């Protein structure tokens, strides 16, 4: 259920209230809790939904710029982020990795018809 404030709050009112001429410079003390956040995201489905389909398609992916024999395939794209805030300050890092593997020829199934 919405509170009275939530019912009255509109985008236009927020814009009006936060205009520079509506603001005063005030010194405040800000306290932040200590926290640590780590997150790992698999980006493959997101990238495909954004139209990056050929890179994950074995028949269409072209990585000849990375491998002259064009024998690479993109299997995953993973992003990992880390943030820690404590008394000593803030530490943050992130990395994105594209996992590639060698394409290999499909094995021909073996069928031996040696009984009725």
Automatic annotation (TrEMBL):
The molecule here is called Leukocyte elastase inhibitor
Q: Which GO terms describe its cellular component?
A: extracellular space
What terms describe the molecular function in GO for this protein?
A: serine-type endopeptidase inhibitor activity
InterPro entries documented for this protein: Serpin_dom, Serpin_fam, Serpin_sf, Serpin_sf_1
Establish whether keyword DNA damage is in the entry. no
Q: Which domain of life is it from?
A: Eukaryota
- A Pfam family the protein falls into: Serpin
Which of UniProt's keywords are assigned here?
Protease inhibitor, Serine protease inhibitor
Q: Which Gene3D superfamilies match?
A: Antithrombin, subunit I, domain 2
- Keyword Disulfide bond found: no
Membrane spanning segments where? none
Q: Which residues form the Serpin domain?
A: 3-116
């Amino acid at each position: 259920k919405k509170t009275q404030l939530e019912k009255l709050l509109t985008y236009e009112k927020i814009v009006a209230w936060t205009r520079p001429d509506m603001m005063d410079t005030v010194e405040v003390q800000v306290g932040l809790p200590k926290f640590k956040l780590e997150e790992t995201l698999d980006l493959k489905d997101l990238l495909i939904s954004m139209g990056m389909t050929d890179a994950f398609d074995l028949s269409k992916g072209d990585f000849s710029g990375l491998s002259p024999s064009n024998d690479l395939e993109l299997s995953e794209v993973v992003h990992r982020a880390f943030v820690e805030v404590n008394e000593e300050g803030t530490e943050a890092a992130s990395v994105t990795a594209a996992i590639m593997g060698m394409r290999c020829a499909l094995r021909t199934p073996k069928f031996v018809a040696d009984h009725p």
